[in-house]
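Dissemination and training. As part of the outreach component of the grant, students in the summer workshop were shown how a complex can be specified as a set of sequence lines and then modelled as a single object. The example used during the hands-on session is reproduced here so that future cohorts can follow it. Participants entered these lines:
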Amino acid sequence: MKFILHVDMNSFFASVEELQDPSYVNKPIAVSGRTKRSVVASANYIARAKGVKAAMPVFMAQHLCPGLIIAIPHFNLYHEYSERFVQIISEKFTNNVEIGSIDECYVDITSLVNKKNDPVEIAVRIQKAILKDTGLKCSIGIANNKFLAKMGSDYKKPLGITTMWQNEIQKKLWPQPVENMLWIGKSSAELLKQHNIQTISDIAKDENKVLLEQLLDKNWYVHYQHANGSGDDELDYSHNTPKSIGSSETFLHDTNDFVEIKEKLVELTKDVLRRLNHHELKARTISVNIKTIDFKTHNKSFTLRDYTNDFDKVIVTITNLYQQFFLNNLVRLVGISLSNLIDDSELSISSELFDDYMKQSKPMIEKISEDDIVNMINKKFSKNIINMANIKLK
DNA sequence: TCTGGGGTCCTAGGACCC
DNA sequence: TCTGGGGTCCTAGGACCC
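and obtained this result:
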């Protein structure tokens, strides 16, 4: 049996802005852009009391909450505070921390729990340490698995500490509406409610299993187990490299002017390649996505023969992809994304291995076609290269 | 006054290989 | 002639998270 905490920073961006500018304290704050198309990224509790929520258009937030102060986001600062709160936990308590996102993490405190230290006391000490060192409030959920811990941290905010033990789920988890459940979003919640599955207790019921299987994807059983209080308790400590890197921007005015769109694509490509190089990665799949004024999104992607971080190659592909859209509508947003990423160093090691192998195996080379070589390089690993050469030798 | 931007994962069809 | 089943990769779209 493990003891897992979920630590969730309360209205993180807005709280950091309050620390920077004391004149914001006790006033309603929303962090967002200032264009007419901006939406709220984070709001403090004074603004939330008036109905302001994340992802709400700014004009709507200002309508609900007269006098709302719009704070322009400082993402570098949020990243610094994010590192600090994780550092406090790993230095003063335990290194068993899985970073969930910029404002949340899981902590496995199993090894810290004993007769003198119960899980709730440990959570209280973590909450106090973060508040003292950073000035930021957090809520903590305590449970035996990640799902219940996360549902616990959501239960009481701000500065909440909530246990979600197995014998408490009937009281604390089951009465909640289905949309409160992790991984059940808007569309699944609507579907479930149409079939009279209203609360988490309905997801937990045996007699609804057949219905759940029909309504949800293949993960229906995971949701059923979550609702009954079981779930994954293994934290992921891997230092994760990104699987894709993208950038997008909504135009202030809808457009179909190719010159304007091309300028934006160049800007986005430069930004994405800068971040790709920062991670020392190269990419093979290039995607362009657009949102038209009817709010439909469309994607075009192309996978190159070789991994690249070269601006000219990427922008040529992106321009070609964009021109394959046959649009009747004006464009609201354009974005680009690079995926199929590989570590630059891994790539150079496999090409060196490949070259070495080819030098030693000159007689084989004539038996291998150019396409085979391209395939080998794309497979990344020397093992495949050797297998391929051996097959050809037969 | 309509509705951001950063991601991950899943599905489903078609191409292609054995 | 008409025909299998398993597997991987690519592309497009959508659900979900913060």
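DSSP finds 17 helices and twelve strands in chain A. Students were then asked to discuss how this feature might be tested experimentally.
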